[in-house]
Structure to design on (242 residues):
């Protein structure tokens, strides 16, 4: 059973998330972080930058692995996840960019890139994996399906996922059809998972993921099998939890 934390005030959401990440890095300066993109963790990253600027935490020895990246998008495209991470976090803290890893969506051989990413992951145990959730229960870009691939793989994005992410592009036609994502096996291997969920539109899916059946049709429900998951909810996303 996940540890579910529901916060009342929106600003506390980001502060609580940042406290969890920063405390880990303070006690384990060589921590390995699994990082996520999307709108939800932006406040967490903003708070971490603040805490870093106050001199309370250093990321100099931290390593990071991101969950996913669009296929075929230039690394410096404004909507690439590499750009997102650089702009929202890495460029503002003392992390060594060489210690940050985001799958290379521009690789000519995407399957080879997936194998390479898995090799890197196999050499590093993720201490804390930050996750968001898609409206259909996806984690990373692991979309609902009859079966799930445990390893890093190329995925064809569902239309609703492209639609949800089209806000970062000029139009939905520009959203890549495919992405590279860490698999659920790699996510489940993390020592600790912090699942961040905000907004009324996520209330039903997160309730289903935490309390409903464990099914590949809701990839986040597999997290019920992990022994150290914290689900952080804002008031709206936590509407269906007592
Ligand atoms: N690949 C990312 C996911 O990692 C993220 O969790 C999801 C939700 O994003 P948001 O937080 O913007 O709702 O968006 C994308 O699909």
């Amino acid at each position: 059973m996940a540890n579910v934390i529901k916060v009342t005030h929106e600003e506390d959401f980001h502060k609580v998330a940042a406290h969890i990440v920063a405390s880990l890095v303070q006690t384990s300066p060589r921590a390995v972080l699994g990082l996520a993109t999307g709108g939800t963790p932006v406040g967490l990253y903003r708070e971490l930058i603040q805490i870093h600027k106050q001199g309370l935490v250093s990321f100099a020895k931290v390593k990071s692995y991101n969950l996913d990246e669009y296929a075929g998008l230039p690394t410096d495209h404004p909507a690439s996840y590499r750009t997102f991470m650089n702009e929202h976090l890495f460029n503002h803290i003392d992390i060594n960019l060489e210690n940050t890893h985001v799958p290379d969506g521009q690789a000519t051989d995407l399957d080879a890139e997936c194998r390479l990413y898995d090799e890197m992951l196999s050499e590093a145990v993720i201490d804390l994996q930050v996750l968001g959730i898609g409206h259909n229960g996806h984690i990373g870009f692991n979309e609902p399906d009859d079966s799930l691939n445990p390893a890093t793989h190329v995925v064809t994005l569902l239309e609703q996922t492209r639609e949800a992410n089209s806000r970062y592009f000029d139009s939905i036609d520009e959203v890549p059809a495919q992405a590279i994502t860490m698999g659920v096996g790699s996510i489940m291997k993390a020592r600790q998972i912090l699942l961040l969920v905000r907004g009324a539109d996520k209330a039903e899916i997160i309730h289903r993921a935490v309390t409903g059946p464990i099914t590949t049709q809701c990839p986040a429900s597999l997290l019920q099998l992990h022994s150290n998951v914290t689900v952080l909810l804002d008031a709206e996303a936590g509407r269906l939890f007592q």
About this structure: The mean pLDDT is 97. The first strand starts at residue 3 and ends at 6. The radius of gyration is 17 Å.
